[in-house]
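Fill in residues.
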């Protein structure tokens, strides 16, 4: 698509946008009586207007039925609650419904997955991940390595970008996997890197890891609801995600896991168990002897967090209607337009560190502001832009502003206004 640098043009794109009615289904935060330019859907997605109803239905069920709601709640009996999100999640991650389940929170799930799929043995005990992964993932990996009794620095292999580059080349990742093939137990990557916005080649990384005799897991916190995924066909071993970023399911919302069916039906895989992972037919007999459910369900621990899951369902309904492929098409245009406009700003002031090719990123662009980044960011905030500031890695060396125009509720006109504000800020 050829873009034009004008508000008029941005408005035309909004008029032609097949998803334009979706914005109205969300509460947009206000500043000085006006809609904010909310570009932090990568951190906490906005609240769908239907969320309140979904939660109220469960509050009503609880107030009128008490414990009976487990089986007789009006619309969605709580006993089965984790099942109601399966089809939608399966569509979003490209999985069989039996390969996914929503439960717990992200970091807890990462630990549960590593209990099952990080099984160091002999020379094969190392974990490979991208350098600068989200801190919680780093801490989870560090503690898992130590839990198994290995020295952290030795057992962790981090892949960093080449000198002078900000993102990883797939060829470098694949080569590193091959080089370490004799000692790798697990390759654990983000789907979309939270800091740079880089979308990794999930299939290539998985194939390389599996060929090296290691398992491949992904943290999809910044990928789910952002880019279409194909975990089953990509042969990914396991994945985890959260639902409060692009999935708009509320602060601390329920997380989810994917376990490929090649593992999901193997009840010999060691795991940490709880009664919700136990054979559903037998669950209330309260007997000894854990018998896991087949599929991802067998990794559940506790009965479902119904209120958080109600919010999750409200949001997933919107994704089902809009469709992730249609969302991705708009997302590519929206972020492409932002990239086009930023391209007209002085290069010595601003650098986009996110990959330039749409296939290698989601909707987020990470902007490296070389000087006075904090002041620029403060001006954006004053003018009603909600973005995200990351301190420079090297003091005085500029900081990163992450912006994520989200196709469900952001508009081309907002992208244009953001560009104008940023331009003023840089001047
Ligand atoms: C947001 C995010 C988290 C947050 O973890 P919680 O357990 O949900 O607090 C973890 N990892 C990544 C990659 C994230 O982007």
């Amino acid at each position: 698509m050829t873009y034009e640098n004008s508000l008029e043009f941005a408005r035309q794109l909004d008029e032609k946008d097949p998803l334009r009615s979706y914005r109205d289904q969300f509460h947009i935060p206000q500043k000085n009586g006006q809609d904010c330019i909310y570009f932090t859907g990568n951190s906490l997605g906005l609240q769908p207007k239907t969320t309140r109803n979904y939660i109220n239905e469960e509050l009503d069920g609880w107030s009128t039925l008490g414990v009976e709601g487990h089986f007789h709640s009006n619309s969605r009996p709580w006993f089965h609650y984790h099942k109601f999100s399966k089809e939608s999640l399966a569509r979003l991650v490209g999985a069989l419904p039996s390969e996914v389940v929503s439960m717990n929170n992200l970091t807890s799930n990462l630990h549960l997955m590593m209990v099952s799929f990080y099984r160091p043995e002999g020379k094969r005990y190392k974990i490979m991940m991208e350098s600068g992964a989200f801190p919680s993932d780093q801490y989870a990996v560090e503690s898992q390595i130590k839990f198994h009794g290995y020295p952290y620095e030795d057992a962790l292999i981090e892949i960093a970008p080449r000198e002078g580059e900000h993102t990883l080349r797939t060829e470098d990742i694949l080569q590193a996997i091959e080089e370490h093939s004799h000692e790798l137990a697990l390759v654990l990557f983000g789907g979309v890197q939270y800091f740079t916005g880089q979308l990794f080649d999930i299939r290539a990384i998985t194939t390389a890891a599996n060929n090296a005799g290691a398992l491949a897991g992904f943290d999809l916190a910044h990928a789910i609801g952002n880019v279409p995924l194909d975990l089953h066909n990509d042969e990914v071993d396991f994945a985890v995600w959260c639902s409060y970023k692009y999935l708009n399911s509320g602060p601390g919302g329920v997380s989810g896991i994917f376990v490929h069916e090649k593992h999901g039906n193997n009840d010999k895989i060691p795991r940490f168990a709880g009664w919700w992972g136990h054979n559903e037919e037998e669950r209330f007999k309260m007997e000894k002897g854990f018998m896991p459910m087949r599929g991802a369900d067998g990794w559940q621990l506790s009965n479902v967090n119904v209120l958080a899951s109600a919010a999750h369902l409200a949001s997933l309904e919107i994704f089902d209607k809009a469709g992730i492929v249609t969302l991705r098409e708009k997302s590519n245009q929206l972020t492409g337009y932002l990239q086009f406009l930023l391209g007209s700003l002085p290069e010595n002031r601003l650098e986009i560190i996110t990959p330039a090719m749409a296939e290698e990123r989601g909707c987020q662009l990470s902007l490296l502001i070389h000087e006075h980044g904090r002041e620029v960011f403060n001006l954006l905030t004053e003018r009603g832009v909600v973005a995200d500031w990351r301190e420079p890695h090297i003091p005085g060396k500029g900081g990163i502003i992450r912006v994520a125009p989200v196709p469900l509720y952001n508009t081309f006109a907002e992208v244009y206004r953001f560009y104008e504000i940023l331009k003023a800020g840089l001047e």
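The CA atoms of residues 162 and 243 lie 32 Å apart.
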